[in-house]
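thought: fold this chain, then report.
action: predict
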Amino acid sequence: MRPVCDDMLHALARKGSECMQLLLDALCSEVVIRNHMERVLSFIEDSLKNRGADVVLLHEIGEQVRDHILDMCTRLGWAVHFSTKNDDTGKCNAITGIVANTAFDEVTGIEVQR
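observation:
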C-alpha cells in the first residue's frame, strides 16, 4: 500500500510524514474499509453472475473481507478456497483466494485452464 500512497501524494504535490500519516489514517478508516469490502463483493458477484466468468482470483485480502466472501459464497452456492494466513510477522500475511461458480474437484492444488 505504501507505494500507492507515495504516488498519490506525489500527484497531489504533497510531502512530509504528516501528509502520509493523514492518508494512511484515511485509508484505514471504517468507512473506507467498508466501501472497499462492498466493492470487492460486488465485483465477485457481478463477474460470476453477469460477466460470464467461471472463477475470480483474489490477492491480498484481509480476514474480514475473507469472512464476508465466505458468507456470500455459501449463500449463493459458489465454491471458495483461501490460502492460509502466515502468522510470521517477518513475512507477508496476505491471503489469496479463488471463487468459482462450480465446486472444486480438490483444493490441495488448483489449476485454472484458460
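thought: worth noting. The beta strands are 55-61, 79-82, 95-100.
final: C-alpha cells above.
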